[in-house]
Amino acid sequence: MNHEFQMLAKTFKGLEEVLADELIELGANNVQIERRAVSFTGDKRMLYTANFCLRTASRVLVPIAIFKAKKTDEIYEQVKQLDWAQYMNTSMSFAIDATVYSDLFRHSQFITYRVKDAIVDWWMEHGGVRPNVQLTNPDIYLNVHIAGDTVTLSLDSSGESLHKRGYRVANTQAPINEALAAGMLLLAGWKGQSDFYDPMCGSGTLLIEAALIARNIAPGIYRKGFAFEKWANFDADLFEEVYSDDSREREFTHKIYGSDAGFYAVQTAQKNIQSANLQRDIEVKQIRIEELRLADKNTEGALVMMNPPYGERLSQDKDVLRLYQDIGTTLKHQFCGATAWIISSNEEALKCVGLRPAKRIRLINGDLDCLFNQYVLFSGDRKSWKKSL
């Protein structure tokens, strides 16, 4: 199957352009930005490559039917018309995920029931054997997307979300999503061209994703598997070629530094870094951000990024506001010449940083609307800095 076909890579709000750039760099065709997704065309090699190499995608879907429907019975009839022997056999289990943006259909769970019924009834009429529905680790993942009266039924080629890289062996509280972390780094222009600092590193996600980008190591290298490996048309030799191709990897001559106030966080980060086999590039130590001193480091041109606590339940919590003040003080006095980025849903706390953002980007972390602010750090006052440009 070397012919080209339509695919759709899902992502987070605010990362669509980053994902589109990734796909273009990988050689995808007809790349078009959509709502929290990017559509593209390619062959089977591109399907495997997209799953293996994309940093900001959550999954890659292959549409198999697009149709109009205003009632669930119409969805049932359309799904039942498909030749399901092309996609599975009766010994294979399947699971269905539905996303609905429509006033016509309000209950996504009922949609999944009707799609399941249509598939089971088709098989009962074509051999009399009922395939199993299995929510955990099924053989076939199906995705139903409804926008208005347009229904798109797709094969999910990824299976478990692509943000689950496979290197994470330990967690701190509320670790940032790996795909979001990679998107933040790419939005900041990170390619490994300088030293990198995360002084509130938690479980080390930003550190690890920064190292993977710096060396251009495919994030899929740690995965145990992808859903397409169970498809009837899976080409094991072709996937081995994709998996073994390290021609895109590059040298990284700088260093990545992480720190955190918590002993457990530092231990967790070190375990994850070791799991990812990136110890040569990343150093982590325990220290509070207000105590951080970098007199022995040249921070000119460095990139600083952090995901501090948001203090969502108590937006005026004095400890949270004081923490953001400490962040601002440390950035001003310890990171002269660097560029810093902070993500937070707490806009009041961000004001306490005491620096004027050069850029503000809206992102979503989990279910929280966040600001991703850029700060250009310079010595002296802003007027003097501008004159020196």
Largest sheet properties: 7 strands, mixed
Proportion of residues in helical segments:
25-40%
Total beta strands: 14
CATH superfamily of the largest domain: Vaccinia Virus protein VP39
Radius of gyration: 23 Å
Stretches where pLDDT is under 50 for at least 5 consecutive residues are none
How many domains comprise the coordinates?
2
Report the CATH C-level class of the largest domain: Alpha Beta
Mean pLDDT: 93
CATH architecture of the largest domain, by name, is 3-Layer(aba) Sandwich
Oligomer: single chain
- Main sheet: which strands, in order across? 2-3-1-4-7-6-5
> Looking at CATH, which topology of the largest domain would you report?
Rossmann fold
Q: Tell the overall outline.
A: elongated
Could you please describe the fold and organization of this structure?
- It is elongated and about 75 Å long.
- The N and C termini lie far apart (54 Å).
- The chain has 389 residues and is an alpha/beta fold.
- Strand 2 (29-34) and strand 3 form a beta hairpin.
- It has 2 domains: 5-156, VC0802-like, CATH 3.30.2130.30; 178-217 and 248-388, 3-Layer(aba) Sandwich (Rossmann fold), CATH 3.40.50.
- It is built from 11 helices and 14 strands.
